[in-house]
C-alpha cells in the first residue's frame, strides 16, 4: 500500500499502518475517525453494513488519543484504529438487538470484554454491524435490519453471521470489525469478502460478561485485511477473563512477533476439499487446492495423505448442542412469532430434543475430538476450502444443494462447524476468486497451535 501524505491515512489502510501513524503523531486519531465516519456515510446505504453509528463517542475517544500523543503517552497498539462491533457483542449504551425484532428496543447496560480490551489498547468503536437474527445463518438479512450486501458484488451476500463486519472491512469503511464464530461465522464472511478471519483456540479470546455459551461452540474474534492486523488485535484482547469460565491465559509471547519467526519448512500439510463427506463446488475445490499446493511448494512443506472423515452425525450433534441456546433467546415470544428460517429450525430442534439425543450429541463431539487428535498425529496443518460454495444471493436462502448433492443447514457449513465442535484454531485467508467473487483457504491446526496457524496464514498471504 502506498504511504499517505499531507497528514492523512489512505482509504484501505491496515490496522498496523493506521496505529503506527497515529502513535507517531504523523496523523491525528480525530482525522482518521472523521474520515471513517464520512466513508460510512458515503458507502453504507448500498451495503447496509452498519446499523448504528455513535459519532459522539468515537470522536471523544479520538480526541483522548490525540491528547495522549501530545503528552508523549503511548495510546496503545490499536491507537486511533476505527472498529465496527458485531451486534451480538454488547457495548454499553448501544442498541443490542442481536438482529431480532424481539429485542429491537434493547440497549446494552455493559460492554463485552473483547471490546473493552480493544478500547483500552486504543481502538475506536464507531458503531454496530449487522447480523442475521441471533447470528444463526451464513447470510446476513433480518426482519429488523434488512439485507446486507457484499462490496465485491452487491447482488451477493457477504456471508454470515458476521456479514456486516465483513462488508464494512471489505468496503474500506473500517480496518477491522469484530465477529463471532459459532459454526463458521467469521471464516465464511472472510471467505466471501476476501478478508482474513481467524477463529482462535476455544477460550483464547474471552467472551464475558454474560455470554451463556450453552453449546461451548462460540468463539469471538475479528475480521481484518491482513494476518498481521489479526495478530495485533489478538495480542490486545486474549487472556483470562473472570466472566468467561472457558477463557485461557494469554501466551508468554506476542502472536505478531511470531508471524515471520516460525520455520514452516518440513511441515506436514494435508489438503481435503470435503473433510471426507462434505460436497464441495468443484470450482472452489480447484481454486483452494491450487492455493494449497502453492503454499506447500513455497514453504518447503510436505503434502501428506488425509485420513479425516467427519461423520454426518456431527451435524445432528451440532444442532442438538446449539438448539437450547437459541430456544433460550426466543422462548419469551414463541407463540406465533415470525422468525428467520434458520432460527425456526433451531427452535424446532430444541422442542424435539430429548435426553438420549443430547447424550448422543456429547458422545459424537467427544468422538470427533478424538478422531481429529489421531488425524493430526499424521500432519501439522489441515487445509480445506473455507466455504464449500461461492457467495450466493444476498437475500438467501442458504444453499440446499452443493455439487449436485442435497444439503441441509449444517451440511452447508460442513467444512467449518466441525472445528467449532473441537475448539481448534482455524483461519480463512483469500485464495482466489470464483465467478468474480473471493473464496478463502482454511488453515486448521491442533488446539493451542494458534501461532503456527497464524504464521502459515502470513506466509500464504505473502505469496499472493
UniProtKB/TrEMBL annotation:
Domain Amidase residues, every copy: 31-454
Keyword annotations of the record: Hydrolase
Record-stated family: Belongs to the amidase family.
Lineage: superkingdom: Bacteria
Gene Ontology molecular function terms on file: amidase activity
Name of this chain's protein: amidase
Catalytic activity: a monocarboxylic acid amide + H2O = a monocarboxylate + NH4(+)
Species annotation: Mycolicibacterium vanbaalenii (Mycobacterium vanbaalenii)
Pfam families: Amidase (PF01425)
Record's keyword annotation contains Cytoplasm: no
Keyword Transferase: no
Residues in the signal sequence: none
EC number: 3.5.1.4
Sections of the chain in a coiled coil: none
